[in-house]
Specification:
This protein is 43% helix and 18% strand. By secondary structure, the chain is an alpha+beta fold. The chain has three domains: 61 residues; 82 residues; 39 residues, no CATH class.
Length: 190
Amino acid sequence: MESRNHNKNGAVSKSHMSRKRKLNQMTSILFILGAFSTVHVLILVAVVTVLVLGSRANTNDDETNVISNQTNKVVNVSLKGGIIGMLAGSPQKTLNSKIQEENANGWKVIQIIPADSGNIFLYIFRLILLVFTLFLFTTSNGFYVIMERQSEKLNNDMVPSHDVIKCSKCGKEYFSVMKGGFCEECGNQL
């Protein structure tokens, strides 16, 4: 009984050899594509992990050290881009939550400025990051929020008397560097 792939002499037919060769080529191509996809996915996972860890570190970097007598500061509110930013990120919600957090600490908003960067390397980095993450995530420009805190009345036990001046009209105390300025309460010149 003869096999389909063998001719009468027992030799393998040419059509079977070409089918086997094509099958080997297809297997090689699929293996290469599969290996590329695995490497690509591993790179994607690594990039996303670095970004997530970096964004967590970024939120901690926004908390600047505030000197006890400091009355102004700038807060950087960063936003997310890509598909994740479009679906899950709301600039208004992000801005409101940061402002509420700072208001609870005694700061009030003076001005909000868009954080536009003209840095060409930053644009290229964002584009590469967007492509590597398959358009899922990239960093995005956010806002600079200028905050102000009312200076509290000075405690005479903490500050020597020669560093303090008083308003002649209402008696509110200020640091001596405010000399020549105006009182917040009554508007009198110090």
